[in-house]
Design a protein that fits this description.
alpha+beta, five-stranded antiparallel β-sheet, extended, seven-stranded antiparallel β-sheet, 32 strands
Length: about 900
């Protein structure tokens, strides 16, 4: 299709001037001006109750009012000004405000001359971003007004409109909102963003629900609109946080569908009708259905649609109906901008010139590269000569390096000898350590273990060397789990605080040990093996008791020794020598204790008598994220802070109890350690006082470990034991426990509850037709619907298959009947779609009262089941009450 237009014949300015704009005096009340503007635009009124006859042509000039006095133009007032006044809450008493107080001035005007055309007016409109341009003659007398609508009406679209598509000129940044948003929120955002339209969008599932419900809900929708016009309360008060719903977007969220549009004209009509803007939703005033267009359509088609439907905007949508942008009169007029068309031609000419220059430059570069290659060959010959000289110099340097390497080998041999001696000392310390220490090779075979390992497992060192650690030390049922832990260690992931059972040589006992697994790597990063260190947890309390008895025994010995010293002064010299030897042994024991503290897998903190930190071991550094040097001398309450797991209230510091002479043991599983990097760790801790030989408390020791993983696992197992994994509701076992408690409460406290027994109707058809995946999805949807009808205090559970049950606490049977009918109606209205199949289901419900006359759990369940069975027998989709 070709359009026969003369491009050289530009319409004169007279054709685009509307000679009959709305004119008022400056003392005219604002409410009368708004009414006048609304009467001139009643062809756009879509609010219920408005029955004005539509006008034939909308020039756009009646959306503004010119304020004049003595034939002089004083100001202009538009629909945009109304939005700004409402959005800033300045329009509470429009009858008391005159138009001269709110009009916009100075007014941008165009003085008409003999040689002007419509492009002069179009340039001013685009330059100042305005929609209304008054035109004056040479004597400054008003001739009329020019708007984008009047320009579009007089311009005859030519081939340019067919060559350009909607995508080229559409507005991509558009305000959108949900249809439940209040009109007051829309006005505020329109005033803030300086926009004339807000597109009302919804998700595809909501859009389809609305389409199916439009026919059945016409009566209720009409009542809702009438309430909105009358100002009656039709919804809860809106939230001030409208930014949660209104979004400035470039429509990257292509899943939203346009269902309506709200413009300044609808806001103007709301103001005239005095509608309660706070309590009126967008759906009540929006223009719907809206006119849509594809982004691939030409501007010629868009222009024809806008003229045919007398509209000012089209919503640009994708193939699935998602919103992509907005097309207005201003967008179409962009293609008639002379500057834009000339700039396109100039751009093409400039591109050709640039490509020509680029070819010339490329030719010059090619000649330059040839010359460069010749120079490069000359340089290569020169470099070859220099390379031969460098080879000679490098040969001399290699001889010197060879001499240095021989000296380095001698030094390394000395270092290796020193390292061997250090390893022997280290192994001596490992042998005497109080923890089990085992060295494993990459194939999980035992390379070495210490005396404590021999004591725990009953095997001699010579008996287990080269044997598999899993076969010797791990029970058969735990071998796969321990093998997985070891593989993670060899991959570079240490394993801490693993509580695993072992097995002794005789196979009769299985000691529980707390393990730490650490990998060993060579300098190239290859796995050499792993170190297993740990200790028996079962003997910890026994060791504490033995330590206390040993302390009392030592005190008795000290008392006897003191008496002996007072009686035998002649033995003083010998006692001094004995004490020196004892001090030497004590020093060695202290060194051994330091090594032990460095290697155990629990955090240890020691303090002085005032609670100031004296020592923390590496595991404590890792858990607390404190360096030992940094924490030294600080109060222990500053480094070790524990709170209650649920209430977050601070808990007493264990060190404080130990300094008072008490042994503190935390096994409540309720304490949480607050680490200074913001993390929270579940811990178990033990604290005990440190006493001198005279029983005076000289400090305290705190032992703690991270049990976050084990505590989380215990909670997860507890939740899984009482809940249905498919729907998240409580399972039959937990429901019967709560129901039994409700029966007992009703008998003891004379309370009245109600049990609802629900069985889905026609559910088996879904499973048989579409499979269990569809049935599972439907059960999840049904559980959500049923939960929405219950209070927080009520209980809903899945008893199995398609059977559910609910306990309505402190609820009579009559009240429960209303709730049950609500659940029944919700299930009945469900249209479940799966793989192009649509299913409708129902539910049969049995009700039984839980009161002082209820016998027990089984009788209540049996009565509810019988009532549900009767509901199914009498036709299904019913609620049946069990009567005594």
């Amino acid at each position: 299709m070709s359009i026969k237009n003369d491009w050289n014949s530009v319409p004169p300015l007279e054709n685009a001037i509307d000679p009959n704009p709305l004119i008022v005096l400056p003392d005219r009340p604002l409410d009368q001006v708004i009414e006048l503007m609304n009467q001139a635009n009643t062809h756009n009124c879509r609010l219920p109750g408005f029955t004005s006859e539509p006008s034939q042509i909308d020039t756009g000039s009646h959306r503004c009012v010119l304020v004049m006095e003595n034939q002089q133009l004083l100001g202009i007032f538009t629909e945009r000004d109304i939005i700004d006044l409402i959005g800033n809450h300045h329009l509470n008493t429009p009858n008391q405000i005159t138009i001269d107080r709110v009009m916009r001035r100075p007014v941008i005007t165009l003085t008409k001359t003999e040689h002007q055309d419509i492009f002069a007016a179009l340039s001013l409109l685009r330059e100042h971003q305005i929609r209304y341009l008054p035109v004056l003659d040479i004597h400054q007398k008003l001739i009329g007004i020019v708007t984008p609508e009047t320009i579009r009406a007089c311009v005859q679209p030519a081939n340019l409109l067919q060559w350009r598509t909607v995508r080229d000129v559409m507005i991509t940044e558009v305000i959108q909102a949900e249809e439940t948003e209040s009109v007051a929120s829309l006005i505020q955002i329109m005033a803030k963003k300086k926009t004339s339209f807000i597109v009302i969008t919804a998700a595809p599932d909501k859009t389809s629900d609305k389409t199916s419900d439009k026919t059945s809900d016409k009566t209720s929708d009409k009542t809702r609109k009438q309430k909105a016009i009358g100002g009656e309360e039709c919804q809860p008060p809106i939230s001030d946080k409208h930014d949660n719903y209104l979004r400035l977007a470039n429509f990257s969220q292509k899943s939203l569908m346009a269902v309506g549009i709200v413009s300044e004209q609808e806001i103007l009509q709301c103001q005239v009708l005095e509608i309660n803007l706070e309590k009126t939703q967008a759906r009540d005033i929006m223009s719907s259905p809206i006119l849509k267009i594809s982004p691939q359509e030409s501007l010629w088609v868009a222009n024809q649609q806008m003229q045919q439907h007398q509209t000012h905007q089209l919503v640009v949508c994708g193939d699935r109906g998602e919103v992509l942008g907005l097309l207005t009169h201003h967008c179409i007029l962009q293609v008639f901008d002379v500057l834009e068309m000339s700039s396109v031609i100039e751009g093409l000419q400039q591109s050709i010139a640039e490509q020509t220059i680029q070819l010339i430059k490329s030719n010059e570069q090619l000649h330059q590269e040839i010359r460069e290659r010749q120079r490069t060959e000359e340089k290569l010959q020169k470099l070859n000569y220099e390379l031969e000289n460098r080879v000679m110099e490098r040969t001399i340097a290699l001889q010197t390096s060879n001499d240095e390497l021989i000296a380095e080998m001698i030094r390394r041999k000395q270092v290796q000898e020193a390292l061997r001696e250090s390893q022997e000392r280290l192994w001596s310390l490992i042998q005497t350590a109080g923890s089990v220490i085992i060295f494993l090779g990459p194939d999980h075979r035992i390379l070495q273990w210490n005396l404590e390992a021999e004591r725990v497992y009953g095997w001699q060192d010579i008996e287990v060397l080269g044997e598999s650690y899993l076969d010797i030390c791990v029970p058969w049922e735990m071998r796969s789990q321990v093998d997985r832990y070891l593989n993670e260690v060899f991959n570079g992931n240490p394993q801490r605080d693993l509580e695993l059972p072992g097995i002794t040589k005789d196979g009769n006992s299985q000691p529980i040990l707390l393990w730490n697994l650490t990998p060993l790597f060579d300098t190239q990063g290859e796995a050499l093996g792993a170190i297993i260190s740990g200790q028996e947890i079962t003997e910890r309390k026994q060791a504490e008791e033995q330590l206390w008895q040993y302390k009392e025994h030592l005190e008795e010995l000290v008392a006897k020794r003191t008496a002996a010293l007072t009686q035998a002064n002649q033995k003083l010299r010998r006692e001094i020598r004995d004490r020196q030897r004892a001090e030497q042994a004590l020093f060695q024991e202290k060194e051994l204790a330091q090594v032990t503290l460095q290697s155990i897998g629990e955090g240890v903190i020691t303090t002085d008598a005032h609670g100031y930190i004296q020592l923390i071991n590496p595991m404590a550094e890792e858990i607390l994220t404190w360096d030992a040097e940094e924490a030294f001398g600080l109060p222990v309450t500053e480094v070790f802070k524990i709170v209650h797991e649920k209430s977050k209230d601070p808990l007493p510091n264990p060190i404080e109890a130990a300094l008072l002479g008490e042994t503190f043991v935390d096994n409540t599983h309720e304490s949480v350690l607050m680490v200074r990097n913001g993390r929270e760790l579940a811990i178990n801790c033990t604290a005990a006082p440190i006493r001198a030989s005279d029983s005076k408390i000289v400090g305290a020791v705190l032992v703690f470990r991270d049990v976050t993983h084990s505590r989380n696992m215990a909670r997860q197992l507890s939740w899984q034991a009482s809940h249905d994994p498919l729907t998240g509701l409580i399972n039959r076992r937990e429901f019967e426990r709560r129901l039994e408690s409700a029966v007992i409460d009703s008998q003891v406290d004379n309370l009245e509850h109600t049990l609802c027994y629900l069985d889905l109707d026609r559910f088996k058809i879904v499973n048989d037709t579409s499979g269990h995946a569809a049935g599972d999805e439907l059960l999840r949807h049904v559980s959500t619907l049923l939960s929405s009808h219950l209070r927080r205090s009520d209980v809903l559970g899945r008893l199995g298959g398609d059977e559910f049950a609910a306990i309505l606490y402190n609820c009579s049977v009559d009240e429960a009947l209303r709730v049950a009918n609500g659940m029944r109606e919700s299930i009945k209205s469900v249209e479940f779609v799966w793989e192009n199949h649509t299913f409708r289901i129902g539910v049969s419900i049995g009700l039984v009262a839980i009161d002082a006359h209820s016998a027990n759990l089984q009788s209540v369940l049996s009565e509810a089941d019988a009532a549900c069975y009767k509901a199914k027998k009498d036709g299904r989709d019913r609620v049946e009450i069990h009567r005594i």
